[in-house]
Amino acid sequence: MSTSEFVRPAGFLGTLNGKYHNRALAAFMVIVVAHWAEHIVQAVQIYGFGWPTSRARGVLGMPFPWLISQEWLHYGYALVMLVFLWVLRHGFAGRSRQWWNLALGIQFWHHIEHLLLFIQAQSGWRLAGAKVPTSIIQLLVPRVELHLFYNTIVTIPMIVAVVLHRRASAAERELTGCSCGAPKQPALAA
To answer: Where are the transmembrane segments (predicted)?
Structure first.
């Protein structure tokens, strides 16, 4: 990526993607990985423990079952994730940005699927005459497996992007203004 292709944002976005990128990225990744883990736990509950899909709610869904059934909550998470993927991308350059952009593109589609589910939940209309809100790919793949797959193919490129970002070259750090991968300065001896 040449300097002409990279525009460092000003103001809040510039600060978030520069000075505070490390903290913002760490907080976002904890939330993303925790959400992915919820989908993994749900799959283990179904395929490892033999629970029916209606009982397999992940970790948080066990004490709070309403979390599973609220389409607005799932859509809201998909939308917030999309926004943060867009906002935090300014702190990435080079190969790490390519991987982050891949995750952003996949999440855009995942968001569209959740938007379709949300619209159906609000309107009563059902795709293809289904009995419950159904996304496009869900016509071919069951919902639990599909959303585990979506979250996996979004999260893995994000992890790759973060690893590459933390190993960024000095030139990439100069482009972004981010200090996530900056070498630590040795402490001065007293």
So the answer is: 20-37, 72-88
The pTM for the full model equals 0.88
The band of 186, judged by pLDDT with boundaries at 50, 70 and 90, is: low
Rounded distance between C-alpha atoms, residue 140 and residue 109, angstroms: 16
Q: How confident is the model at residue 125 (pLDDT cuts 50, 70, 90)?
A: very high
Nearest Cα to 18, choosing from 175, 190, 124? 175
Total residue length of the chain: 190
Helix ranges restricted to H, 44-169: 66-69, 71-88, 94-123, 143-166
> CA distances (Å), 168 to each of 23, 96, 112, 155, in order?
17, 8, 32, 20
How many helices (H) and strands (E) the chain has is answered by 7, 0
For residue 117, give both structure tokens: 């589910």
